[in-house]
Design goal:
This protein is elongated. It is mainly alpha-helical. The model has no long low-confidence stretch (mean pLDDT 79). It has a domain at 37-77. The longest helix has 23 residues, at 29-51. α1 packs antiparallel against α3 (64-71). The chain is built from 3 helices and no strands.
Length: 77
Amino acid sequence: MSCGNATPSRSALPNIGVVQTLAVRVPSPLGWVSVLKRMHDRWQQRQALLALEDRLLDDIGITREQAEREARTPFWK
């Protein structure tokens, strides 16, 4: 064992969840339009799913409960 090195190695330090990089990607204004359009499209698709009759939901293999759960999903997911 060496007494000359008083600092522990990097692997011996506890992981306290410190973020190593602070690079944040911010979309351009056109990027935001794209994000909003995608969110609106998802909302429209989920509303259309809710409007389907039970027999049509059965044709695509989902239940009314599954359709309602999907419709409650946030737009950004």
